[in-house]
Write a structure and sequence with these properties.
307 residues; mainly alpha
Length: 307
């Protein structure tokens, strides 16, 4: 439970940083660079303090390919369209039930009635807290892209979470007990392929369509942007794909995917003060009420787990 709560705080920080970078350099590039930096950080960990390829690397790499490669790519397309709060709301509130159902049918893991009730309270509180406000106008096209990206992201994240559980199960059966940082490294190796290919295709098509002069001008603009954006990209990589994912691996090692996903669904609650500062979104009364309900659900779920 502690690991899941830590993941929530780190993912909230990552969402704010990701929104800032995706608005400036686009979702494809922002997603690629955060994963690339995380790969470097986790590689250093895996081959100094961790265990390299020990355990069940194939399962974790597959989880990364689906959850990080496809899921996060879809998430970063939705992020600049809906903003960090709404994107996180849709992704996390869909991920929790998806994960619980997939784990039930694939691994046979069941939740008891008290746990299901607490998860419902958490998701309900989050939905109340993030009810759209009239002051932020979103076009119909942006809504369509954002909703589609969020739904794909939620499904892929849920599948990835269940595959992490499967990876730990297989590793344990083979006598291995890899740490969360090592499995995070194995997972990110599978996740970097999709955003790298997507970015290369996008850059090639842009250069081919507009010619060398356009590519040169774009590179110059990008360099100017990077001077102010690199701290946000670095923070995004550390908080999200490095420390955040490692904490999530730690949580999923011992706790059902549905429960972990429900805890992480409170990420938007942590986002309330952050988006107020960075995105200038107002905190309404319903946001505070919803936050209180979600926190009550988390407390109840924690007590259920203790028992």
């Amino acid at each position: 439970m502690l690991a899941a709560l830590l993941t929530t705080l780190l993912f909230a920080t990552s969402a704010v940083c990701g929104y800032r970078t995706s608005k400036q350099i686009g979702g494809l590039e922002a997603n690629f660079w955060r994963i690339a930096l995380a790969t470097i950080f986790l590689t250093i960990w895996a081959f100094t303090f961790g265990h390299g390829f020990e355990g069940a690397p194939g399962w974790f790499a597959l989880s990364g390919f689906i959850g990080i490669g496809i899921g996060d790519s879809a998430y970063f397309q939705a992020l600049p369209k809906l903003g960090s709060r709404r994107t996180i709301l849709l992704c996390q509130c869909l991920t929790a039930p998806f994960a619980a159902l997939i784990e039930f049918f694939y691994l046979g893991t069941k939740l008891n009635f008290a746990e299901i009730s607490c998860i419902a309270v958490i998701l309900g509180g989050v939905a109340i807290a993030l009810k759209p406000d009239d002051h932020l106008k979103i076009s119909a096209r942006d809504w369509q892209i954002g909703l589609a990206g969020s739904a794909v992201s939620a499904l892929c994240t849920a599948i990835g979470s269940v595959l992490i559980r499967k990876g730990f199960q297989v590793a344990g059966e083979n006598g291995f007990h890899p740490d969360a940082g090592t499995t995070g490294y194995q997972r990110v190796l599978g996740g970097i392929l999709v955003p790298a290919i997507a970015l290369l295709i996008f850059k090639w098509r842009s250069a081919h369509a507009h010619g060398p002069a356009f590519a040169s001008d774009t590179l110059h603009i990008s360099r100017k942007k990077w001077r102010t954006l690199w701290p946000w990209v670095l923070a995004n990589a550390l908080a999200g794909q490095t420390l955040g994912v490692t904490a999530m691996q730690w949580a999923l090692k011992t706790t059902q995917a549905g429960v972990v996903s429900a805890i992480i669904a409170t990420t938007p609650i942590f986002l309330l003060p952050m988006t107020r500062l960075v995105e200038k979104e107002k905190i309404q009364r319903h946001s505070l009420i919803g936050a209180a309900i979600a926190v009550a659900g988390v407390i109840g779920l924690t007590l259920c787990r203790v028992k």
